[in-house]
Amino acid sequence: MKLRAAFAALAMATTLGACATAPEPCTAAWIDYRTDQILSRFARENRGLISDLRQVARPDGKVDTVRAILLAAKAEDLQKFANSFNKVIVPELRTSLNQCRGNENFVPAFTEFLRKEGVSEPALEWVGPILAVAQAIDANQ
What we know:
Number of strands: 0
Largest sheet: none
Oligomer: single chain
Shape: elongated
Radius of gyration: 21 Å
Structural class: mainly alpha
Order of helices and strands: HHHHHHH
């Protein structure tokens, strides 16, 4: 019982500490932070299967036939894994981003995300105003 109470206290302290260090909502740093939180949790929950997927390829890049056959036997688990990503993770990511609708930080945060993804400055200059107009239209609906 004492172990359970200690674990609960540690979990709460960790959670409170995480809240204190979160970036300002709807900034580029916040989008990265939330995405990392959501995807990291999903990766932890599915560590075994992800490890199995990593081990299918040998260091030389070729598929390890035995591991591939063992993984094929887990086809149902793979299907559940993909479905949970689609039904749980994607909506969580959308919800996080949707809370930024109408927030003045969203367009700069989104363009910063695109910049990090390698989108050129001329393309960002073109898409930025379009995003701002689309966001204004969404806010008025």
